[in-house]
């Protein structure tokens, strides 16, 4: 129900509603609204019950008041209200509020122009009596009475037996409970689907984070391995360079030693030749001295 209707019913009529279909189903609340605006002089005959007979009584009395206000109301609408069909009570309340507001405006216009007595023939208080005075016509009254009688008969015919109407009302309660449970199941299913979607999203996000972490760790590990490999290559290169230096040094040492040995051998040969020549000269001299 809109806030405007709630405020109107609470402030103007004094009705605090919780479920508009249930609260207006018996017709008693509509009678209370009419009585507040002086449009239901027989409100004391209304019954605040939910039995079929009480409802038919209330709506039969309301039909005449609705008709005088120009609010569309027939037996089908009344039966829909008794069966608490959604939206019917709200639409009727809107129409009723508009009609009551229009009646109030018309009365203010007549009072302001001073034509109230001329139009009605006498000063009539605002309410049902005012509408009766405006619509006074013997033939029209007969038609209205016949229409009310037809309305009541039609309502009782449509309502059927008391058991049928009560069964329909109870069945509606079960249907509402079924719809409520179905709605709860749908909401529960939606929550479960949402939870599953969130779980999948969380799992996917976790897997992506895990993959990113593994990729980062792998990159670090590869960088570390590359650094270790480069260090090993450098160490190997340094070792090879050192081995080559040592090998060259040893080779140079061996070469020098060999040259030194050759030099010594050459000196030995030279010394031997010199000694041989000296000895040879000595022998030659010795032989020459002996012959002389």
From TrEMBL:
InterPro entries: CH_2, CH_dom, CH_dom_sf, Sperm_flagellar-bone_growth. It comes from the Eukaryota. Gene3D superfamilies: Calponin-like domain (1.10.418.10). One of its GO terms (cellular component) is cytoplasm. Residues 1-101 form the Calponin-homology (CH) domain. PANTHER family: KPL2-RELATED, SPERM FLAGELLAR PROTEIN 2. This is Calponin-homology (CH) domain-containing protein.
């Amino acid at each position: 129900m809109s806030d405007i209707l709630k405020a109107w019913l609470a402030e103007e009529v004094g009705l605090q509603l919780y479920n508009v279909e249930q609260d207006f189903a018996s017709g008693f609340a509509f009678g209370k609204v009419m009585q507040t605006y002086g449009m239901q002089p027989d409100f004391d005959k209304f019954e605040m019950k939910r039995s079929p007979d009480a409802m038919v009584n209330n709506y039969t009395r309301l039909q005449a008041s609705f008709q005088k206000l120009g609010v569309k109301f027939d037996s089908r609408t009344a039966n829909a209200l008794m069966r608490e069909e959604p939206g019917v009570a709200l639409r009727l309340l809107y129409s009723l509020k508009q009609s009551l507001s229009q009646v109030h405006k018309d009365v203010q216009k007549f009072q302001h122009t001073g034509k109230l007595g001329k139009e009605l023939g006498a000063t009539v208080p605002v309410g049902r009596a005012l509408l009766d005075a405006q619509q006074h016509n013997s033939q029209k009254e007969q038609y209205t009475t016949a229409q009310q009688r037809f309305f009541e008969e039609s309502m009782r015919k449509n309502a059927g037996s008391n058991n049928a109407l009560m069964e329909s009302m109870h069945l509606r309660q079960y249907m509402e409970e079924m719809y409520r449970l179905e709605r709860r199941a749908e909401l529960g299913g939606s929550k479960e689907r949402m939870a599953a979607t969130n779980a999948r999203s969380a799992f996917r996000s976790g897997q992506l984070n895990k993959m990113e972490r593994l990729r980062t760790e792998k990159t670090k590990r590869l960088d570390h391995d590359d650094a270790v490999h480069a260090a090993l290559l450098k160490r190997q290169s340094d070792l090879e360079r050192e081995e080559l230096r040592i090998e060259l040094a040893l080779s140079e040492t061996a070469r020098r030693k060999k040259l030194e040995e050759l030099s010594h051998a050459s000196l030995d040969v030279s010394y031997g030749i010199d000694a041989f020549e000296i000895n040879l000269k000595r022998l030659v001299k010795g032989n020459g001295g002996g012959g002389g």
